[in-house]
Amino acid sequence: MTEIEAVAKAYGSKTVGFRFKGIDLTLSLSHGLFSSYDVDSGTRLLLRVLSHHIDEAKSQNQGLPSSILDAGSGTGVIGVALGTYFQSLGYR
C-alpha cells in the first residue's frame, strides 16, 4: 500500500448501511463530510417522509418524478436512495 493509499484509507471512508423502501444500501462516507459516522437523523426523517409521499402518490395514480438532481447535498444519501429506488429515472 502506498503512502497516499494509507492516508486515504485512514481518513477517506467509513462504510455505513441503511435501508430505504426495502432496499439495503451501503455508502462509503468520507470523514471530512457532515455526519460521516452515520446517516443523520434529519436525513432519515426526510427519507421516511419521501417514502410516505411516494406510496401515497402511487396509491392515487399520481405522477412520480422523471429525474433526480443531487447537487451539493453532502454525502448524497438522499440522491443515492431515490436513484436506487427509481432506477428508470435520470440521476444527476
TrEMBL record:
Superkingdom in the source lineage: Bacteria
GO molecular function per UniProt: methyltransferase activity
InterPro entries: SAM-dependent_MTases_sf, Small_mtfrase_dom
Matches recorded under Gene3D superfamilies: Vaccinia Virus protein VP39 (3.40.50.150)
GO biological processes: methylation
Keywords from the named record: Methyltransferase, S-adenosyl-L-methionine, Transferase
Domain Methyltransferase small: start-end pairs: 25-83
Protein name according to UniProt: Methyltransferase small domain-containing protein
